[in-house]
Write a structure and sequence with these properties.
Length: about 400
């Protein structure tokens, strides 16, 4: 009985810690300015970003197109100015994205844009191979690596650059997703606005290195002097983590922007969201192996099961079912608060709110399956290629391209 009580107390402490992590993350996200919740015409303000006494190179690696590529690139074309250059990197001139870029160059001839059509193979990471020429030629104070599926506004860029002035490390952005009228889109939206956001914002609040590289803003001089530059991470597929970790060890401290990195891409199948979750877990397994094995303990379904198995019936006047239901209600209440704050859930009709909650429950289930599948192999599929992620994150290509 004493052992059972001890185990129950440990589980309750774990539940309390996870609840505190969520609440701290929620408090941190109160400062997030969600421009993506505005109507489309207002969101795409078309106003160039203005920066004084500093220069910025936004490096955007491109490969392929989807229904939203033109809109995303247009939002960046409109934000360029004399001090802000947009460097678009394509592996070949035959890439479908090249036609979209050419159209936008004709439409916005005044935009400060340079296009790179040839990749340089300096290492294993295809993203770094794609970007390295633009990075090497950049003479700006700031380097801003921005994924192809992101959209932005001039005001969003201005706000992030202003906040970055007092940051000696990486200024990064909380990844969120635009609301999509599909169940797969809701699953993805729920993932980024809840479970992912909890850990992401909590790490920032605690000063821990724990962000991803969808949007990475750093002083080029700092990166060069402290790490040797972008090429240093050419043999890591999770280059964003190892770059940030190297800067962190060197004494830099990273900050999360008050403006999120808004993903606007085509998500048509739940399986696509699931496979992204599997890929990211396998990358975390290479970069943070201990944390990747322990992360199942913060998943809601795992906590519900642990509470059911260990909670003594009648303890504190509650049955097992009542204890699990109370935890379920607490977690869902925090989820709803985060979704209202980051995705404007309260503005939707009742049917859409219910659909979003169901999508979050589906994500909870998929996370457990993704955990098992993610640890079953160290092979990562990335844009049609396969890589094996080994110890300390070193990556080996499994094809000859």
């Amino acid at each position: 009985n004493m052992l059972a009580t001890a185990v129950a107390v440990i589980v309750l402490v774990l539940v309390a810690v996870v609840a505190c992590v969520r609440l701290i993350a929620l408090a941190r996200c109160l400062r997030v300015q969600c421009f993506h919740l505005k109507p489309e015409l207002e969101r795409d303000d078309g106003v160039p970003a203005t920066v004084d006494n500093q220069t910025v190179t936004i490096i955007k690696p491109l490969k392929g197109v989807d229904a939203h590529t033109e809109y995303n690139l247009t939002s960046f074309f409109k934000t360029t100015s004399a001090n802000i250059r947009l460097s678009l990197c394509l592996e070949t001139q035959d890439d479908p994205a090249n036609a979209v870029v050419a159209q936008l160059q004709q439409r916005y001839p005044e935009a400060n844009v340079k296009v790179y059509h040839q990749t340089a193979t300096i290492g294993v990471n295809p993203k770094i191979n794609n970007m390295i020429q633009a990075y090497s030629e950049a003479k700006s104070t700031w380097i801003w690596i921005s994924d192809a599926n992101l959209c932005t506004t001039g005001k969003a860029i201005e706000a992030t650059l202003k906040q970055a002035q007092t940051c000696n490390g990486v200024m990064h952005q909380l990844p969120l997703a635009l609301y999509r009228y599909s169940f797969a889109g809701l699953v993805e939206e729920g993932y980024f606005a809840t479970q992912h956001a909890y850990l992401y914002a909590f790490a920032d609040a605690m000063g821990i290195n724990g962000f991803n590289g969808m949007s990475t803003l750093v002083r080029k001089q700092t990166l060069e002097q402290l790490t040797g530059g972008l090429a240093t991470f050419k043999d890591y597929l999770a280059e964003d983590f190892f770059m940030a970790q190297a800067l962190y060890v060197a004494g830099c401290r990273h900050r999360m922007s008050h403006v999120p990195a808004v993903q606007n891409h085509q998500t048509t199948k739940v399986v696509d969201v699931f496979m992204r979750m599997v890929r990211w877990l396998r990358l975390r397994r290479g970069s943070m192996p201990v944390a990747s094995y322990l992360e199942i303990l913060i998943e809601p379904l795992a906590l519900y099961l642990l509470l059911w198995l260990t909670f003594p019936s009648g303890w504190m006047g509650m049955s097992k079912s009542t204890a699990v239901l109370a935890l379920f209600s607490l977690f869902n209440a925090i989820d709803v608060a985060m979704l209202c704050l980051l995705q404007g859930l309260h503005r939707r009709c009742a049917q859409e709110i219910v659909a979003q909650l169901v999508a979050c429950w589906v994500r909870d289930f998929l996370a457990v399956v993704a955990y098992a599948l993610g640890h079953a192999s160290n092979v990562v599929d990335w844009r049609g290629r396969q890589f094996r992620v080994e110890a300390q994150g070193h990556t080996v290509p499994l094809d000859t391209r």
